C-alpha cells in the first residue's frame, strides 16, 4: 500500500509540473510555438511496410534534434543524457508476426553509451521500442537492441508493469487499424526535505548515462474506416510498481507529457485528422 500511495503521489506531482509549465509557456511568444509546430509538420513522409521507419512518422516529429532512422522505428537521440528523447514505432498485425527470434539479438553500442556503463549498475537495459513489436523482420528486431533505443530501467518495472504496458499496446492492434507508439524518458522534479523542488537523477558508468525518474508512452490509435484517432498517454515512475495497480492508474493528460518533456504531439496529430479523442480517465 505504501508503494501504491507513493506512485500515485508521484503521478499527481507530474500533473502539477505540467500545469506549472503551462503558466510559464503562456508567457512566451505565441508565434514561436506556431513556427515550431509548422516546421515539425513539413518533414517528408516516405511510406514503407509493414513496420518500417518511414511509415511511423505519419503524425509528425515531436522534436527535430539528432534524428536516427532504424529499420523498425525513428528516434531522437539526446547526447547529454546518453539516451533517446523519444522513439516512435508503428504496430499492426503484420509487424507483430514473423520468423524473428530474440535469441539472435545482442545489445549493440552505437553512440555515447556502452554496455560497460550498465554492467553491475542494478538497472536493466530497458527497451523503448520493444523487441517483440517487430517480429516481421530479424533486422527490425535486431535494431531494437541498439543502446540508443534503451534507457536504465528498474528491473522490477521492466519485467512486470512496463512489460504489461507493452503487451497492452500490442493487444490494441486487434481493435485499431494502426497503433503508433512514442516512448521516452522523463526527468521530473521532486520536493525534498527543505521544501524546495529539485531535478536529481543517477548516472551510470564512465559515460554518465542518465537514469530517468519516469517513462512515458503516447499511443496514437487509428480507428478503422477513417473514423478518427484516439490518444492515450501514460507516465510511470522508474521504480517497482505493485502489479495489482491497473495500468489505467497511470493515464495522464497529453499536455502533462508535452509540458514536462518539451515535445509536441497534439499540433502534429491535428494536422492529420479532423477527429481526435484524448483518453485520460483513470
Automatic annotation (TrEMBL):
Its EC number is 3.1.30.-. GO terms for biological process: apoptotic DNA fragmentation. Its cofactor is Mg(2+). Keywords: Disulfide bond, Endonuclease, Hydrolase, Magnesium, Metal-binding, Mitochondrion, Nuclease, Signal, Transit peptide. Its main location: mitochondrion. One of its GO terms (molecular function) is metal ion binding. This is Endonuclease. It comes from Collichthys lucidus.
Amino acid at each position: 500500500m505504501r508503494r501504491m500511495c507513493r506512485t500515485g503521489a508521484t503521478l499527481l506531482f507530474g500533473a502539477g509540473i505540467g500545469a506549472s509549465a503551462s503558466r510559464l509557456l503562456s508567457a512566451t511568444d505565441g508565434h514561436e510555438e506556431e513556427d515550431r509546430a509548422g516546421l515539425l509538420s513539413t518533414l517528408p513522409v516516405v511510406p514503407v511496410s509493414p513496420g518500417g521507419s518511414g511509415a511511423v512518422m505519419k503524425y509528425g516529429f515531436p522534436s527535430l534534434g539528432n534524428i536516427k532512422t532504424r529499420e523498425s522505428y525513428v528516434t531522437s537521440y539526446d547526447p547529454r543524457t546518453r539516451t533517446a528523447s523519444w522513439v516512435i514505432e508503428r504496430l499492426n498485425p503484420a509487424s507483430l508476426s514473423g520468423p524473428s527470434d530474440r535469441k539472435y539479438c545482442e545489445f549493440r553500442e552505437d553512440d555515447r553509451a556502452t554496455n560497460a556503463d550498465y554492467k553491475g549498475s542494478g538497472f536493466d537495459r530497458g527497451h523503448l521500442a520493444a523487441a517483440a513489436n517487430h517480429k516481421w523482420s530479424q533486422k527490425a528486431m535486431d535494431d531494437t537492441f541498439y543502446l540508443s533505443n534503451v534507457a536504465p530501467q528498474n528491473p522490477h518495472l521492466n519485467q512486470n508493469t512496463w512489460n504489461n504496458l507493452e503487451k497492452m499496446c500490442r493487444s490494441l492492434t486487434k481493435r485499431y487499424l494502426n497503433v503508433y507508439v512514442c516512448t521516452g524518458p522523463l526527468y521530473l522534479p521532486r520536493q525534498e526535505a527543505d521544501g524546495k523542488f529539485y531535478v536529481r537523477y543517477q548516472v551510470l558508468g564512465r559515460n554518465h548515462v542518465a537514469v530517468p525518474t519516469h517513462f512515458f508512452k503516447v499511443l496514437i490509435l487509428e480507428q478503422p474506416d477513417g473514423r478518427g484517432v484516439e490518444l492515450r498517454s501514460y507516465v510511470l515512475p522508474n521504480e517497482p510498481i505493485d502489479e495489482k495497480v491497473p495500468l489505467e492508474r497511470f493515464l495522464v493528460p497529453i499536455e502533462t507529457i508535452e509540458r514536462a518533456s518539451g515535445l509536441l504531439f497534439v499540433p502534429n496529430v491535428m494536422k492529420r485528422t479532423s477527429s481526435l479523442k484524448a483518453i485520460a480517465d483513470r
